[in-house]
Amino acid sequence: MSASPARRPASAASAGFTLIEVLVVLVLIGVIAGLATLSLGNGAERELRKESDRLAAVLRLARDELLISGGNERALGLRRDSYSVLDLVLLDDASREWRPVQDPQLGPHWLTEGLIELDFEADEQAGRLSGSTTWTPQIRLGNTGEMTPGLIVLTETKGDLKRYIRTDLNGQIEVFSERP
Hints:
The protein is α+β, with helices and mostly antiparallel strands and 180 residues long.
C-alpha cells in the first residue's frame, strides 16, 4: 500500500477573507459614506442656492422675452415670501395696474415658508419688503434691456446664510454668495 498524502477539503482553504479584501471593502464603505455626506449637505443652504439661482433665471428670462417681443413694460415684484414678474395692465384711460404674469416660470412663486425671506436694496439703501398682499414693482424691465439697479437679498430665516442678486442699468444679473 502506498501512503497517500492527507488532503484537506477545498472549502477549508477558502474559509476566510484576506487582509487585502477586508481593506478594499472598508475603503469602498468610506468613499460611499463620504459621498453621501457631501450630497446631503445643509438643506437650508441648498434651498437658498436653488432659490437664488431660480430668481436670477426668472429675471433673465423676463428680460430676454421683453427684448425679443419688444412688448409692454414689465417689472419684478418682490414680497418677503414670494416674487413674480408683473405686467403693466391698462384698466381705463386714467388708470394702470401691475398684475402678476400667470405663467409657470414667470408667474408668482412662493418661497419655502419659514426658511427664506427676501429683501431689496436700491441705491445702497436697505428697505424691508412689506408683508402686503398686493404686488408692487421693485425692479423695472425695459424693452431695450435696461433694468432698475438694485440688490436682492435672500436670507435664511433661522441662520445667517445669505445670497445676493445684483441687477444693473445695462440688464446684467449676477448672483453672489458674499455681499458685492
